[in-house]
Amino acid sequence: MKTQNKGINYSEHCELIRETFDRLGDKWTLVVIVILSSGPQRFSALQNGVAGISQRMLTVTLRKLERDGIVQRAVFAEVPPRVEYQLTELGMTLITPVTGLADWSILNSEALETNQRRFDSLGPKTKGRSAP
Question: Domain 27-122 belongs to what architecture?
Answer without folding.
Answer: Orthogonal Bundle (1.10)
